[in-house]
From TrEMBL:
Protein name: Uncharacterized protein
Organism: Paramarasmius palmivorus
Domain of life: Eukaryota
Length: 86
């Protein structure tokens, strides 16, 4: 799960930089210092590359369990709605 999240966020950041470049914005400043300072990061080997450190907390497991419970509740609500419509 952590790997999938890391890859997804990396692709999102790359897409945002590409979009900024196409729109004529300075892609070096697309993520300002305030946003970057909230992350635990270090400079990468290549120019413009950053490596974000991700902590695996116990709370994350609780969040996943909560989302799974909410998802099953949502499925129940949708099936009840379908039964009422038909």
């Amino acid at each position: 799960m952590l790997t999938i999240t890391s890859v997804a966020i990396s692709r999102l950041m790359l897409n945002l930089r590409s979009l900024a470049s196409r729109l004529g914005y300075d892609e070096e400043w697309i993520f300002n210092n305030v946003e970057i300072s909230r992350l635990n990061w270090k400079k990468g080997e290549r120019e413009g590359e950053i490596i974000v450190e991700v902590d695996d907390h116990y709370e994350d497991d609780q969040d996943v369990e909560l989302l799974e419970r909410r998802g099953s509740m949502l499925k129940d609500d949708i099936s009840m709605f379908r039964q009422e419509v038909f």
